Every structure is written in C-alpha cells, then in structure tokens.
Fold these 2 entries.
Entry 1:
Amino acid sequence: MWIANSASKGKAKLLKLKALSREGENRARGQQFRSESGSALVLVMFIVLLLTILGMGVLSATVGGAVRTETRENDVQSLHLAQKGLDEATAYIQAKLSPITDINPDKLEHVLNGLDQKGLNVSTELGVNSSGIIDYIEYKDKKFDDIKQTRQYYIDVEASALVNGVQRTLQQRITIDTYPDFLKYAFGSEQNVYLNGAPVVKGNIYAGNKLIISNRAEYKYLGDSGLKKPTMFPQIQPNGMDAANLGEVFVQSLKDIEYHVFDPSGNGGEAKRLADSSDMKQTVQDIMGIDLDKIKIKEQKKFVQINVEESFIDKLVESTSPSNDNAADALRGRLSGKNPSELTQWLQTGSLIEAKTVNPPPEKPAQGEEESDQDYLVRLEQYDNELRAYHESFMGLNQSYRVDGNLTIEGNDFYGLTFEEMAKRGAVPKWIVVDGNLNIINNKAGFIPIKANILVTGDVKIKGNVSFDSTMFVLGSTTVEDAVISGLGTGTDKKELVLISKGPVLVNRIDAFSNADPDEMNAFFYTDAEAKLYGVGSIFWLKGGFFSKGDLTVNAVLGNTSEPSEAALPSQLIFSEPQVTEPRARERFRVIYNYKVYTDQQSSLPRVRKVNIAVSPMRLVSIPPRSSHTDTTE
C-alpha cells in the first residue's frame, strides 16, 4: 500500500515537473519573440545610414565636379583669351608691314624696331570678371651670317588673360624673313598644277589655284601631240625633317583638288573632287601616296610673290655700287618701267658699270725669216700669256661688269665664268650684266665652271656639262637642252643654279630614251610663264625645284622607254616594263627639294614685295597674378 502510494506520489511529481518545464519553455519562447520585434528598426536605421552616406558621397562628387568644371572652363577660357592676344599681336605686326610693298632687307631692322609695344588690351566678350592684355611685342634679335648671308628677324610676343581669378600667360616667337615663297617648294605654281602620270616629288608642293591629278601621262612624238599612256598615280614623299621637305601639299581648299582615274586601257577619267570622296583618307593615299593630314590650306593672298622685272632692276642697281641708300632708291625709281632699248641705252651710257669687252682670240705669231729663235720664243711666250689671259677673261672676277651684246661661254675660247668668293657672296655681291643673249654651251667631256651672279637682258641657253654656283635673272626665255647641270664645289659642299626667268623655261631632251640612272640636275628654276615638263621619252631628275607663275604641267611614266622599230607603230613609244607594278618601277621624273639654296645663294636671291611671317608654337608660362592691367595704356 505504501509502495503504491509512493509510486503515485512520484508520478504526480514527475507530471508536475514536466508541466513546470513546459511552462518555462513557453516563457522563454515568449521572451525570445518579444526581443525580435526591435531588430527591424535597427535594420531600417542601418539602411537609412548607408543611403545617407551614399547620398552625401554623390552630392560631394557632384559639387566637386561642378567646381572642377567651372575651374576648367575658366582655365580654357583664359587660355583661349591669351591665344587671342597672340593672334591680335600677329595681326598687328602684319598690318604694320603690309603697306610696305618693296622690302629692302637692309632697312627691315629699322622698321621692326618701330613695332615694339606694351600693354595692348585684348577685346573680350567673357564678362566683367575677364580681361586680356598683350604684355609686350618686342623685336628681339636677328640671325645674320656674313658668309652665308642668311637673314632672319625674331619678334617675341607675350599675352596674358585673367578669367574669374584663373590666369594664363602665353609666349610666342614670330620669325620674319624676306625669302620668296617659291623657293620653299619642290614643285608648284601660282595657278594650276597638273600631275599627269607617275612623277615622284620629294618635298612640298604648292598649287595657287587647282591641283589636278591623273594616272595617265600625255606626250608627243614625231609631231603627234595627242599620245597617252596609262600608268600609276604620282607619289609625294618627304625628304628629311626640314619643314620644306615633309612631303606636304598646300592648296586653297579640298575642293580645289581634282583627280581622274583611268583604267589600263585608257578608259574612264571622269573628273572627281577630293572633297566629294566618301573616304578622303584612302583617296589621298591612292592618288598621292600621303596621309590626309599632309594636305595643308594656304591662301594665295598669303603667298609671298616676287616680281622678276623689279628684282632684275634691284640687282642692276646693286651692281652699280650706289653711294648710299638714297642714291639706290633714286636709281631704282629711274630704272623702273624702262623698256629693253631704254635699259640698253642706260647701260652703255649712264650705268657706270665697267664694260668687259669680248675681243677675238690672239693670233699665234709666225717666225719671221730674219727673226732669231730667241726673239721668236719671246714673242711666242707673250702669245701664250695673252692666250691664257684670253681664255681666263671671265675667270676670277672681283667687281661688277657689263657685256654689250651676246656672250658665249663654251670652254674653248672662255674656260668659264667665275667670281672670287667675296664678289659672289659678300655683303654687297657683284654682278655681271649681259646686255644680250647668254649661251653656255659645252661640247667637251669636262665641266665648265660658272660661279657668278648674272643678269641677262636677252635669252639664255644651257647645253652640255656645266657646274654651277650661280643665281641668274633672265628677262627673256631659257632653254636647257641635253644639259648635265652639276653643283660646283667638292664633297657635300656643292652649290647649285638658281635661274629666275621672265620668259618660259624649256627643259628639253634630258637623257632622251636612256634607261640608265641619269645625273641629277642641281638647279632651281622659276618662270613667270607656263611650263610643261616630261619624264616619258626622257628622264628628268632634278635636285632643287621647279616653280611657275602660270600653269605647271608634268607628264611622266615608269620604267624603260624606247623608240619603235620600223615594224612597229611609228608614232608611239614603246614602254618595255609594265606600268602598274608593286613595287613601282623606276621613276622617269623625279624632283628632290634642295633647302640649301637659301644659304648658298642668299646674297643674290630676289627681293620680295612683302615679308614672310612664320609663327612658332605657343609656350605656356607661369607668373605671379598680374596687377598691372589697370594701369596699362593702349
């Protein structure tokens, strides 16, 4: 019984303990559920904090970006305003020099000294918090070499701008020279340039009107001038790092470049404009072999021209060695506009230029019947001396001379025509004035030396082997026929011919039908007339340049050319190599620009009507904030 009661009590306690355990668990669960009700608030607050941080970051970046944008805008505007100041300074210099239509290099420095200015205001539309000023325009220096006779003048310009507290200062050097522009190009014309076929030009090209290109050469043979040969397009190439050797093409606009494409049979050829091409970059590569950025725009009004007649008169006055600048100006005024007969009369009666008489050669004496051998040898020695002096009549000249009538230098009677170095290239160069025609004709294997500054009132003819260190002005026409024109000198110091002709320049039959590499002509030709050059039957290789005031046309093919046999068509040449090949066959027409003409012939180069202004790259400088704007004057 006791056992039963004990078991019953134990079971009751066990049930009570289980009930208490379940109640404790329920209470614990209730407490747990009540603690989770605050976690949502913490999560929301955390998200709000995170978004606030992100928002502040975005706001900070936006505000900072706006500040940077404004600062950058002010920086860009100040740079543009400073650049505008440099542009206005250049325009100011051009405006001061443009009224001078006849530039005298000896007086140019005095003119440039008068250009100095300080504190010129720059016009601006950027608001009240912006200002620009040309700090100074200052003639700085000149580069002048007594031997090479190079002249360049330097003007330094500085302009500053202040926009909303951001200041920038730019400096620039302006270079002024009196070089005629035509000497800066390997090939060009003040009018149209026609490149027909496959010429190669190493240097820059200028076209004052249109540049017209085709892959078909035209030529004439045995009187037939309508012959044509499809070939490849021209190639424009650089030749060194000099600015005039980069292989650039200067035109009036892209619309002024026209090209014609012919198929191998000669069909096609419709006129197309580069500006209308759907892929100008590829088209320029196809028709000239250059990148599109090698095409430059240069307006004709910026081209520094020469006047052959005025330059001729200027050098004629120089040859008289006038006593001073006033006398030179007065004489230049009197001679300007004279016709050839009036000029001849002045030369013979009033020029004060000593005449160089062209006498016949001395006659070899014969020994008299009663003359002793000793006496005859004395007379024979005197004859030899007179003959040597006759042969060297035009050698080693040290002053200006005139020749009345025609002059022929042919290597037999006269061994050559040379000046002493200071007479050729001194501060006041000497001239030989031929009042008639000048013929330089050499039928010998050797070369005739021509080292002189020459003025010719008539025509000039050059034939055979001639070595030149010469500048020549010709009022008539010029013919170069079967000539080998080399530079006079030794090694790398060989000079050249610069020939400036009022009349046409005809270069004829240079290495006609030869298929060997020819000797390059060391010459630079200029003509006031039109010019046509060929590299079809002949091979035309020129180291120097060719420029015309009228239209300039070149026709050229590649490879070998020969005359037809009797069985072939009598009126067409035979081109033995395919024209369209890669790599290209050897060119029959090639011009390589020679920049040395400036230093070699500087003392005798022509005067120009206006100066040439070249602007160097801008340079950014840092200076303290400017406070002098308020007290500057215009």
Note: The two ends are 134 Å apart (CA to CA).
Entry 2:
Amino acid sequence: MRPFTRTIIELFDGKRRYLIPLYQRQYAWKVSPQLELLWDDIHRVARRFEEGGQLPSPHFMGAIVISQIQTFGRQIQAFEVIDGQQRLTTFQLLLAAFRDVATNLSKEYSTEIMKYLFNDGVMEHIDVEKYKLWPSLTDRRSFISLVDPEGEFPKATPLPEDEQGVVRPATAAHAFFRERILEHVQVNGEFDPFKLEKLFEALRQGLAVVSIELEGGDDAQTIFETLNSRGVDLTAGDLMRNFIFQRAKGLGQTEGSLNVDKLYEHYWLPLDRWFWREGDTRGRQTKTRLDWMLVDYLAMMQADVVSVEHLFEAYRKWILEEEPFDTVESELKSIKQSADVYRLISEQSTQTALGKFGRFSKAFDVSTAMPLVLYIATCGDFGGSKLDEALQFIESYIVRRDICALPTGNYNRFFVDVVAKMRSGKGDPLTRLRRLLSASQADAMRWPSNADWKTAWMGSDQYKPNRQARLRHIFEAIEHSKRANEGEVIAIKSDLTIEHVMPQKWQENWPVPGFDHVPEGELDPDQLARQFERQQSINKMGNLTLLTHKLNAKVSNGAFSVKLPAVRAHAALTLNRELHSYEEWNEDSIKQRGQNLFGTAVNIWLAPMLKEDIDAFDAATSQEPFEEVEIATA
C-alpha cells in the first residue's frame, strides 16, 4: 500500500482515468452538510492566499483508495476506485462548475480547467477514455451532462420510470458550486480576476487528499470499511454490496469499462434504484427498503433471526465461515431472486398472489413473516396455484390469531423456525407448511380452530382505532368473496372506511326501547342491564361495515331512521345491500349479522389441520410425531 499526498489538481493531472465500479454506491453527497463543509475549506484556503499568506502544508481533505488496472496498447492508465468515489466525483463537479463560471469571465482559466476534466491525445476508446472520471452507470448520464454538455452519453442507460424528473445529487452539487464560485469571484457585483486566480491556486496547491494505491495482497474491503471520513454513512446494503463485489475483483476491463461491472449491471443495478433507497419503518426502526429486504433474505437463508443493526457483520460471517455459494454470481443471483419477490410484495398489485399478500402484510404489519414468504416464493416447491394456497395458509394463521387477540411477540422466531423445518421435512410441501403452522396448541403459536375463532369473532370487541387497517382488510376480503359468489366482477376503486352501523355514541338517538315509563333521572336495573348489553355490542364484528366514503358526524351519530338509509345508500357494496333485510337494528341484529359474516370468513381464512390429520401425515412421511414446538422467548 503506497500513500501519496496529492492536491485536487494533481489528482487529475496527466493522462489517467479513475473508474468507479458499478457496485459502488451512487453519488450521495448533499449540500448540507458535505458540500457546505467542503466549500468552507476551499473558501478558507482561498482567503488565506488572497491575504498573501502561505500554508505550511496543504489542507488535508481525507483519503481515497485506488488500485491500478492493467492496461494494454493505446489504453490510458486506469485506476479502480476502492474508496473515495464521493470525493472524486465531487472534485470533478467542482472543477466543471469552476470552468463554467470562468467560461464567461476568464477564458484562460476555462481552458486550463479542461485539462483536468478530459484526457487528450492517443487512446483506444475516445468516447469513454477521454473522461478523467468514469462514474457508475446510475450516475453516468447526469455526470456527463454536467462535465461535457455537448457530448453524447456513451453506455448511459435511459432513466427508469420511477426516476423521471428526479434532480440527481450530482446536478444539485454542480449548481451549488457554480453559485458559490460566482459569489466568491464578484465584489459589489463586479468580477474580480484576482479572486478567481487565488481560488484556482487554492485548488492547485492548498487542498490535498491522501491517495492510497493498493498493491498485491492488500485487503481492499477492510480498507473500504474503515475509511469513510466526512461522508454519508454507509448503510448495511452499501457494505454488503462492496463486500460481494470486492470478492469478484481482478476481472480487468473491456472497451474502457470494468468487467465486474457486467455482474453489477445484471444483478445489483436494479437494487440501486430509488425504490430501494426509500425509507421503510418497522416498529421504531426506519431503514431503507434494501436493508429490510436483505435482513429478510439472510433470515430466510440462515433460518434464524437477524438484527438489522448487525446485518452486515452477520452476512459477512455467514459467507466467510459457511461458504454457501460456489461463485459470486450465484450469490448475486440468489439475492436478486429474493429482491424480485420482495418488490412484487411491496408493489401490492391485486393481480398477483405476492402483491395481494403485500396488501395484507401492510394492513397487519407482519413483516416478521417475510423470511417464510421469501422461502416459499423462491424455493421452487410452490409453483402455480400452490403459491397462492401457501400464502393463504400464512394469512389465515395470522388473521385468526389477530381476531383472537393472541400475542405476536414470537412471530420472528416462529416463522424462521418454520423455514428450517420446511427445508428438512418430507412430503407434499403445502401439507408440510400447514402441518407446521398447526403444530402447537400454546397461545404463543397456535392456529385457532373454528370454534375458538368463532368465540372471539362473536364475543370480543374487535373495533379499535389502531386496528382500522386490519378490519378494513377483513371486510374488503369478505366483500370480494360475496361478490365472487354472486358473479360480480365490478371493482370498488375508492378508499373504503370502517363504519359502525349503530353508532358508538348511541345513547342520545338509539335509546334502549321499552323503558319510556321510567322517570327521567331514575335508574332501573333492567334498563341498566339492557344498556350494558347494547354497549357491549357496539364494537363487535356484526355492527361494523364498509363505506365508500365517510359520513358526516350528524348522520353518523343519527337515529335509526337517518343512519340506516345513509349506510344502505352505499349499495355498490354487497355488505350494505344485505342490510335491507333488517327492519330494525339491535343487539340481536348485530349477533345475527356477525354469524353471517363469520360464515363467509371461515371459508376465506382456513382452519388448521386436525390432530389426527397431522398424525397421519407424520406417519406417512416417517417424521417425528406431533409435539409442541418450543420457541424461546426473549
């Protein structure tokens, strides 16, 4: 490892190229704090030169790590960037901004700066090798448009649809530097050539980085992980990407681009899109979608719980100690397969089984089931309709437990335990999955039977403000089931809301009948009992329905003669058309409707296997007999 101190200008002096591998993270420096801190350094040194002072040594601005690439014939000397791509890209954008300001104010400096942006003379692939810096594919279009506005876009792919109109960080950085430089070189609105000269002197002499050139045997990944001063914090996904691709180094270059880039472009480039960098929250933790996907992927592969805080360390240990893949390409292929599944789940399309499960998962907040879902969708045992059935088993297990108010604290351990047993089990995979989900009678893990589920469905309060998304999902599923039974295919596109048929504030407009003879202010024991019974019915399933839009408060809390017609008016929903059969609405009506709803629900969310069926399956497949699955609690 050979370190050199080089000023910003010296980094790009002479014929040389810096190639940023495609697997390196995209350009991510922001105006605040990275660019503002850098400009403060530049401005401070330039002012020192303007005042006639001398720096004892250049101002240190961090380090870059590069590794020379073997070149042949007419090819320009090239270096692969191991770490420091953020600084190198920023310096080039700074120089491009300096040139653009100087173009209108001082042609000689504009011409001078061009030497540090472009190579000239003999080269093999001029459209690529002319650039001092060759960014990763995702940054290439925006970078070239700034550094070489009149140039073309060699090997720059079109922007994906979800990035159309997005202002990329490189564009923002160039605009920031151009504005700051223009402000710096003007005094009272007039151009000051002296200030431009001293600013260039600051770049040429006063600001430097340590350039570390690796030699054979140097551990590039370890150096990458430890050198990240003043940069954007590396996510677990960033570290994993570099760890994977560093093990695929040494493949050389073809036509001016690194060969390892082909692996990146095919397998990891889709994971560097904006979709995967968006934040997602689980519990109290917010991470990128990519990090959460990789957590679920590793949990699925290891059949063990993985902490997002220790994701990279766990992944690195697994790869180095267990060597689960023969090649880096097979490792990337495995990750991409899970990522494709995860994206289908996240997009929540009603046209795919995974998309529909994604809608359910969001409503019930059960990301803990994702390792099992990834396994089912990628293992190859659940082709065709089997995938739909398998996901329906998981949804049934969770929905029934939710209605029964059973605890969810062991879900993360339980679902990865099911993955482990699926891998080692025998027999039909669908039956094996249902057997494993049905294997316990303990409240921590049991799949409620029809009898237990009906007791909770009919007897427990189900409506709570924080459960509206879950109830909406349940009632939408019942609505769709009723429509299917009636041959209806009309889709309801509006956002549906949960509504109480008998309002929560029922006391004023929905009095218990039969007690008009009781004087106002007196308490009648029978009346109190009936009022208590009514209050106990309000938040039961039978008193809830869906509306295509909210009712105003006056109607929502109105009397029977006002409320029922308003609810029935939402006749686009089968759930509300059925209310026409009720001439009055009371505790008995709520109970009757609850039973009718349950009759539909029990066919949507399936029951667990019976014990005798489990025993028969175990005997047929020579597996261990039925026993309680023990899950350690934290």
Note: The chain is about 50% helix and 10% strand.
